Inverse folding.
């Protein structure tokens, strides 16, 4: 097999349409079809199932897809590294994503250590929803991401557990709950709470309070994330939930949620089989080697 065949197959796997795949790689449809057929002959079976207007991957095609994607990624990394060498560039880019559900307070220590070990480090840090960051990892737009480990990740992504992220209650300063050291979930019963999307870990915690613990919440208001929820809490129109360590606006206090502690796991994720430069490799090794305690570097 050759890289052209692999590139054509990956385009077809994305488009699931021979005409659009051929347009994507700028060849005629017969040329793309012949290349796919040669690849199928070499791999010993059909990769694509053709049923009239329906095109889909066979079981062999689904099995080969992550391996062939990794091969294409490795070849692209080789070309980019060679191009950098010809230009005399020796940068070490590191593109990290952090879900907006995490505060990442221990991350600066790890990044400082990486910068000390890799002087050519060129860092990019992105915040976003877990689904957006997952897609960026798959597309090669991110090298690593810290994600909430609430559900399965795509098979092409590695997953290493790091720590458990706790939940705090955001309370206006004048509220009686502000004087408590920790707030039991029963104290939220019947209170107006700023709701988040159920796909957000904090939104999932709100749903669990109702479904698993019988807490009756009144989610009159909605916010995109904990920071926005904090602004609504500061306005005095409800309580909110947020990750431990979140920045709270003036007039708001954060108190740990107790009974139950609705912590969710945090995982480090990278694309399986994708080559790592010095910076990415150092970051992954350090993050996995650190002993984390609630997002803080303990050792």
């Amino acid at each position: 097999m050759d890289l052209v065949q692999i590139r054509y197959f990956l385009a077809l796997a994305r488009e699931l349409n021979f005409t659009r795949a051929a347009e994507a790689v700028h060849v005629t449809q017969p040329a793309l079809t012949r290349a796919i057929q040669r690849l199928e002959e070499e791999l010993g079976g059909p990769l694509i199932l053709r049923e009239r207007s329906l095109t889909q991957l066979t079981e062999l095609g689904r099995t080969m897809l992550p391996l062939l994607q990794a091969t294409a990624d490795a070849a692209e990394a080789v070309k980019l590294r060679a191009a950098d060498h010809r230009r005399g560039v020796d940068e070490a880019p590191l593109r990290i994503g952090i879900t907006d559900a995490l505060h990442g307070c221990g991350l600066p220590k790890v990044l400082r250590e990486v910068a000390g070990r890799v002087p050519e480090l060129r860092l990019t840090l992105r915040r976003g929803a877990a689904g957006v960051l997952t897609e960026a990892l798959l597309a090669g737009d991110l090298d690593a991401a810290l994600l909430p480990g609430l559900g399965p990740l795509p098979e092409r992504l590695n997953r290493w557990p790091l720590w458990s992220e706790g939940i705090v209650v955001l309370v206006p300063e004048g509220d009686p709950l502000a004087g408590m050291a920790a707030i039991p979930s029963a104290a939220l019963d019947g209170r107006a709470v700023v709701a988040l999307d159920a796909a957000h870990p904090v939104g999932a915690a709100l749903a669990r309070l109702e479904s698993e613990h019988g807490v009756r919440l009144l989610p009159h208001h909605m916010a995109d994330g904990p920071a926005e929820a904090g602004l609504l809490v500061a306005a005095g129109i409800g309580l909110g939930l947020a990750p431990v360590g979140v920045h709270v606006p003036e007039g708001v206090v954060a108190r740990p949620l107790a009974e139950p502690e609705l912590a969710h796991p945090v995982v480090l994720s990278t694309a399986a089989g994708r080559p790592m430069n010095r910076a990415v490799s150092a970051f992954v090794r350090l993050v996995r080697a650190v002993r984390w305690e609630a997002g803080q570097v303990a050792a």
